[in-house]
Amino acid sequence: MLPADLMISNNPMQTLATLLIGFSVFSALLLALTHFRYKNYQGHTLAQAMGIILLLTLSSLQLAHFAYLQNTVDVIHSPYYAVLLFAVAPAFYLFSKPLLQPFSVTSPRQLLHLLPILLAPLLPYTLALPLAFAVGTGYLLWLARSLYALRAQRSRFQLELMLLGGVFVIAIAVLILGLSLPLLTEKWFFSLYASAIGCAFLLTQLVLNVTPQLSTDVSEAAAETYAVSTLNNVNCDAALAELEACMQEEELFRRPDLDLPTLAAHIGLSSHQLSELINTRLGKGFSRYVREFRVEAAEDMLQEEPSASVLSVGMSVGFTSQSTFYEAFRELTGMTPGQFRKIHALSAPQ
């Protein structure tokens, strides 16, 4: 049991925190099973692994908050909690760095980011908490600089950048909260901290519901931001015409294994050249470019072949599973394939 002076009656803030804690844990499990699948992080194994570790860390923090707020077990004042607290910032950094700075080289020196985690159990509670938030400030500045570097892409990736900006705002709020610790009771502090984590999960789920391919799109935008132009000796108009012919006439998008190197080789460009061509001339990334062709073809099939199953339609236009088909279709049309078919069946002339 906790000391008597820590036991207070429930209040609205504590109730809200409890609800957001439950949402956080459920959301973390859902993200681990859906968003962090390999297909969303091809070529970004480190980001995928650190993303899952970040989810595990935040979930563990939230469970510790729940136990504390419900007066069951006091994990907050233990070395275990300090380790979790110090793990959040480096885990987020190692997760987002390969996506926001795709040309950066992974080196053993990055293991130094784990050093504070090793020291955390040795620190007294009164020092560990403010120091963890101070360490987080450095990572917050890095995130701000990375977001600023993507400013040229904001017209194409407004929603994705809004998510990162929202995370940035929540991180600032948590930092201010950490500095305000001496002015708050522990119950209020951890209620607010748990609520902030819950809001971050809520924001993430809202954006991923609209843009399931978030990690891929942001990575492609970042790659374009940092890349040196490779199109100086390329006839861009001719290359675009050939690209459109490959997609519209040859319908290469129907190939489930179609990737950037394959399509680039088909029209005589390098992967970097094709990626830059699509980004600069069409204002989108390669993945979205292909998804748009597939969804457009699926729309035609759903109307012209009413007896075909939704799964068969998705597979025939190049998607590899029903889930990826549903995600892409809903992202681009705002509805599921079944809803699209029903609406157009009702509006079709009898």
TrEMBL record:
One of its GO terms (molecular function) is sequence-specific DNA binding. It comes from the Bacteria. Keywords: DNA-binding, Membrane, Transcription, Transcription regulation, Transmembrane, Transmembrane helix. Coiled coil: none annotated. The keyword Lipoprotein does not apply. InterPro entries: Homeodomain-like_sf, HTH_AraC, HTH_AraC-typ_CS, Tscrpt_reg_AraC-type_HTH. The chain crosses the membrane at residues 12-33, 45-68, 80-100, 112-141, 161-181, 188-208. It holds the Pfam family HTH_18. SMART domains: HTH_ARAC. Residues 237-343 form the HTH araC/xylS-type domain. This is Helix-turn-helix domain-containing protein. It comes from Thiothrix caldifontis.
